[in-house]
Amino acid sequence: MFQPYMMESQLHHLDMTPNINTSESDAPRIRDDEFDSANTKSGSDNHEGASGDDHDQRPKKKRYHRHTQRQIQEMEAFFKECPHPDDKQRKELSRELGLEPLQVKFWFQNKRTQMKTKHERHENTQLRTENEKLRAENMRYREALSNASCPNCGGPTAIGEMSFDEHHLRLENVRLREEIDRISAIAAKYVGKPVVSYPLATPMPARPLELGVSNFGPQPAIGGEIFGSGDLLRSLSAPSEKDKPMIIELAVAAMEELIRMAQIGEPLWMNSLDGTNILNEDEYVRAFPRGIGPKPTGFRCEASREVAVVIMNHISLVEYLMDVNQWSTMFAGIVSTAITLEVLSTGVAGNCDGALQVMTAEFQLPSPLVPTRECYFVRYCKQHADGTWAVVDVSLDCLRPSPVARCRRRPSGCLIQEMPNGYSKVTWVEHFEVDDRGVHNLYKHLVSSGHAFGAKRWVTTLDRQCERLASAMATNIPTGDVGVITNQEGRKTMLKLAERMVISFFAGVSASTAHTWTTLSGTGADDVRVMTRKSVDDPGRPPGIVLSAATSFWLPVPPQRVFYFLRDENSRSEWDILSNGGVVQEMAHIANGRDPGNCVSLLRVNSSNSSQSNMLILQESCTDPTASFVIYAPVDIVAMNVVLNGGDPDYVALLPSGFAILPDGMAAAATHGAGIGETASLGGSLLTVAFQILVDSVPTAKLSLGSVATVNNLIACTVERIKASLSCDNA
């Protein structure tokens, strides 16, 4: 599957392309010239033989082959359906049109180049228009400055005595003061009392409400990439004007509740057998009688609290949580879809203090056997007097009741305290009320224990992702280890490519309501579920029909053992059918966490199959006490050369496959008093195997039953090999 080659001195350049001559974009121009020159040469020789005088008087002209109108129309129509025809399609088209296959190939290459140039020209025009708008806006600011007056005395400002930025900030501060006063009065009218901040156990004096909502008018929605949003998410829109005062009231009350939930101990919180905090529901109802109403019939309470210290400063962490794209990327294994419907406030004083936004999100467990949880909520961020930041979410179901809603989020979020050396202490509270009757029996215990969607999973994911970000920004990389990528730009682009691979894997494995899974015949819990997607005009995925297949099953082996077995290149040949039994070697890696299993690797398979000589495997493995993942995708060797030299990774086509390894939730009693490492080594595992395979390169093609059967057999054989290998190890 891969060309045998050992990476030696500088791993940022993989010189493994002995048969590669030119890039595809240059090929049409070079080959067209050669083709036309060949045709012209024979014609020129005939002219020379006929008349030597003609040769002396007239310069030789190159003859160009012009396609007929019919040929052009036929190829244009085919290009709209399939811009990348394969050899078989080119031969068939050339036979129909009376052309050589090379002529068809060069026409399509030139057409793609032409379309790319046209797109770039359109993009340049848009950028030029945006530039003109910015110039005009700059002129308006300058004109406003010339007429500005002092907010204190009302006289003209001394522009020459201060910088443009300083003067602009002074004007902005005056506007914000007026806005805070106006909104504070509105909020106090609806809330009926000021905000109260609670210390560890003793109430503090009441402080004035500082909400800082900048505008109640219509605001542009800020949305993340929607791979597939569910029915509830698609049906929601920005809140109406009459709902906004109630949203403010709910946000302020939720912030008050979160502070108390994060700081108060017993009797509100009790310790479980595995050391986690469990909510005392009776005490909660007594402590918070208002809330968002009683628990709906048939819903189950699921609440937990967790504390951790992470390697990220408090300001950056708040900004990550308040940016929908960064938040959903950081927690890609938990958040499958996130959209900001409306921003009610961007905060005051140039930061997120007082920021308020209405959002929807879909929370997932990486298995098609566990339904996702869709929520419509408001997110509120505030900095308190002691310097602690708090970010809270609370459901807005009371404004938009939905008969299909299966969960709602009571005040949940985190408190963030600044720590020395760029660290932050995070106290996370997660509080769901959920109808989980749709969960498969295989995952019932894990979900009901609260570990599937609880605070511990959020915190451990945050800790691991903070370590990954720190690794991406590291500059003091040791050069002694063989295979370590030291090129700074190469590290960043390779990590970015791996991040996109991981997000794509999670997006295609969950039981989102936007996914239509079809169950193939199996044996109950081991059923294979498949779905198809069309990939068109996406530079990050190969064009055509993509078949996703996934299955989940239980193993009587601890999660850590399963994880290290699947990520180890030495044992890969035991389960990877596509490697054809070849020896797998790690060519390069980037460590991105304390655990040696947390890394991005570039693998090569020594295979006798010549068609696999230009391919490598990009793999990311990550583990924490709540979940582990091994995700990989074949990548072209030329594309990886570009990435390792700092090139754009967004145009590398990926179809990720991999494994999600979760604890079975049955080890709670055995883990009483055990540490993190000991906890990870106990109990059984829930393993999800997922493949994404391109079954046809034409997006308009029909899926054949043979393709489905092939993928079904592939995943079934992989599962059997994993069970057999781990059963021998366990014995």
What key phrases describe this protein's structure?
globular; disordered N terminus; Alpha-D-Glucose-1,6-Bisphosphate, Chain A, domain 4; 731 residues; alpha+beta; single chain; 18 helices; nine-stranded antiparallel β-sheet; eleven-stranded antiparallel β-sheet; 37% helix; 20 strands; Arc Repressor Mutant, subunit A
Question: Can you characterise this structure?
Answer:
The protein has 731 residues and is α+β, with helices and mostly antiparallel strands. Among the domains are: 73-119, Orthogonal Bundle (Arc Repressor Mutant, subunit A), CATH 1.10.10.60; 242-473, Alpha-D-Glucose-1,6-Bisphosphate, Chain A, domain 4 (2-Layer Sandwich); 488-667 and 682-729, Alpha-D-Glucose-1,6-Bisphosphate, Chain A, domain 4, CATH 3.30.530. Helix content is 37%, strand content 21%. The chain has helices at residues 27-50, 52-57, 69-81, 87-97, 101-146, 164-191, 231-235, 244-263, 281-287, 314-322, 324-330, 444-448, 455-473, 488-507, 559-567, 637-644, 676-680, 705-730, and strands spanning 222-223, 269-271, 277-279, 300-310, 335-345, 356-363, 373-383, 389-395, 407-409, 412-418, 424-434, 518-519, 529-535, 544-555, 583-591, 599-606, 615-623, 628-636, 657-663, 685-696. Strands 1, 2, 3, 4, 5, 6, 7, 8, 9, 10 and 11 form an eleven-stranded antiparallel sheet that branches. Strand 17 (615-623) and strand 18 (628-636) form a beta hairpin. Helix 1 (27-50) packs across helix 5 and helix 6 (164-191) crosses helix 8. The radius of gyration is 30 Å and the shape is globular. The two termini are 32 Å apart.
